[in-house]
Amino acid sequence: MFGVQTTADGLQKFAANRLRRILLSLTKRTFLAVLFGIVMTVAFQSSAATTVLVVEFVNAGLMTLGQALGIVLGSAVGTSIAIQLLAFKMLPIALGLIFIGFILLWVRVKQWKHLGQALIGFGMVFVGMSHMSGASAPLKNIPEVYIFLAQLAAQPVLAIIVGLLLTTVIQSSTAVFAIMMSLAGQRLLPLGAVVPLVLGVHIGGTVMALLSSLTAQKTDAKRAAIANTGYKVVGTILVFPFLGQFVWLVQWTTADLQRQVANAHLVFALFMVIIFFPFNSLIAKTLKRLLPDRQAGGNRIFRYLDESSLEVPAIALTQAFQEIKGLGRGIYDSMMRPLPEALLAERDTLALEITRVEKDVDWYHHHISRFLVGLSKRGLTDEQTEENINAQFILKELEYIGDDINSMVTIILKVHRQDLTLPQAEWEGLQEIYAKTAANFARVLEALEKWDTDLAAEVIREHPEILRIQRSLQFTALAENPRDDLGGDDIRDEEKLRYAKVDLINLFYGVDEHVVNIAQVVMGIA
Question: Is the pTM of this model over 0.70?
Fold first, then answer.
């Protein structure tokens, strides 16, 4: 099990970004969906990771749900190919792979280090199987073991349930098959028990993904998980009446019992592709009809982020950045743009709406931060660790911007409670710094969207001009003297408005400082 996990981690670090780019080039070629699902699952050593990657592209509009279901079908075949490798008698080769892997760990190129990790894990799987096979040899002398395994062969429903439960608990069909092959190698597991166990393992491999999808924000994640489980359950129901013929077919492929275990998985995976792939478009339409897109019951809903994507750090980082960009656009559209109207309004309605939006910003900041902290505990590459830190930094700066805008609104609400209103003439003095700050904020959001260093540099170059405006407005406001025709109360009101104006000027400048900090991250100088 440790070998399987080590192999998966190493291959994901080595190939995740490459496979993502390849997938982009294949999204318009439906007939290649199954093939790519095979390749991707062999690389990731995880059909769950394949599903995560596919769902991201469906939600981004880069592929249809029908194409995604084709890749999900291919992932079952990909798992079978990985299991086929386990059936080879290659302990000496495995020891050689571990040796080569350790050598690669000393290479300076990080990609080769990741490949070395994968080779070590792959070799350890075979070493573990060899030890397990030797350790299980004495079981041949225990009658109770034969009785139990004979019951599995005589009661296929029980065997399916055992396979399902075992895979659900271990959460790795590859590891379960390693155990089955070790038992088969000692002639402890008859073929009559292998086939129903394989059917149960197929279903069990989808249980955790199905349970995880129940809390997923994305409807397509639920559809893909339901389809994945549905394929295995319906396929098992179709095969069950013909178990005898299925056993004969597997037996016909090879006389080696360990290879028969691997072939049973492969034959069933190919059977599902043949049966379901021609109807994937129809299945996708049916799923959309049975599970329609959920209407947002409030503003607090993630468009991109999904906890299951933590299985593939490259995808999790992409989703986190997408969510952060969306948060930035939300702050600009719902807080920055309506700010002048809220400052000049005699009623508090718009100001209170901005305050409500700021609470949503805090909610998003908390949950995205938690997601990124959870991601940091995964086995990230150095580049991914840097991306994670950058994402957390940008997220925090956006929250600061939301806090500053909310502070402006709080000042205005306080002024209103004192039965005062910011005159149009006073706003005209603030108009220049607002326009410059808002334009720079919009510019940094565009730079963030495209990761454009030229736009980011432009944001930084604009900052000294905003500093000049801030100092000029602040000096003018503080130097103003009350008019001679004002009485005592009017003078106090004038003073309150003046200091409110100074606070607003400083907060606008504070917003631009956070904008510049984000631009520096894009420039790579933060």
Answer: no
